[in-house]
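Many introductory courses stop at the sequence. We go one step further.
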Amino acid sequence: MRRALRLALKGRGKVSPNPLVGALVVRQGKVVGEGAHLQVGGPHAEVHAFAAAGKHSRGATLYVTLEPCSHQGRTPPCTEAVLRAGIQRVVCALEDPDPRVQGKGLAQLRAAGLQVEVGLGREEAERQNAAYLKHRRTGRPLVILKLAQSLDGRIATAEGYTRWISGEQSRVLVHRWRSWTDAVMVGAGTMLADDPQLDVRLVRGRSPRPLVVDGRLRVPLTARIFQRPGAVLITAQSAPAKTRRAFEAQGVQVWTFPARRGQLDLRQVIERAGSEGLTSILLEGGGQLAAAALRAQVVDQLRIFVAPCLIGEGVPAVGDLGIRRLADALRLEQVALRRLGPDLLYTAEVKYPCSPD
């Protein structure tokens, strides 16, 4: 199963909104075929594994990281492929929460007389497909807040200089994350200060869809992000219609929401992103957008690069969260540290004390 989970990673950045899946065909203790889901609309992992195993699939065991699908989608049901291959036993890490599957695939295999076991490698499979699982269970994307800050918690100097706080290894890793993520989100402050590209020029892969949150519609149409296909401007319904039409005329998609004093409800924004098929968003700042996302409780994971430098008076990594008592502070779980050159990467899951309502 560990090998199947490693195989599944071959699909990162290529199969969304589908899940990452790896599969192995094992006969008499030997791997006779293996495969992964490599592209949307392409053969699923099981089909690749059976093609590699050929006649050796008959009577063998299938190890697969997610429940085989039992419905007709872009490709035929994988359960039919399992039965045609003559598999005798299926070891599956995780049930598929997609309503079209949701245990039906495993039930079909059991009804056909196959031995089915579920749960081996479940924890790792859930981590690997966190974005897919959240989207299927809630309709919302997984939101990852990424920050690069100084040791004293600043993301820019008082004059707004940000390049570069983190080192080259850290920046390359961020570009790799982007290549695995459906969309990258920034606020108006970051756009006005940096005019970022938010692409993956440091690694091979596809660039994520850029989402710009600007309730007051301050960002210029000439920003580099808006020259890319698929760019989205997220603004208030009260923003000038003429300006919005100018963005749309350039091919920018505009999402509008009710606003209070120019502030959008990010829960509504994230709901819309999920309805558009986005399963993961890398939120790259700045500090005010980070704070708004944390206040709205839409951030699932936190990834902070801490660089060995001190800035003093500057722009804080996270704006005001409205927390007045230490007991109300946001707590982090599943904390891990990693060294990247001179930087430290701090990763964690965000735990909220109660509902935002």
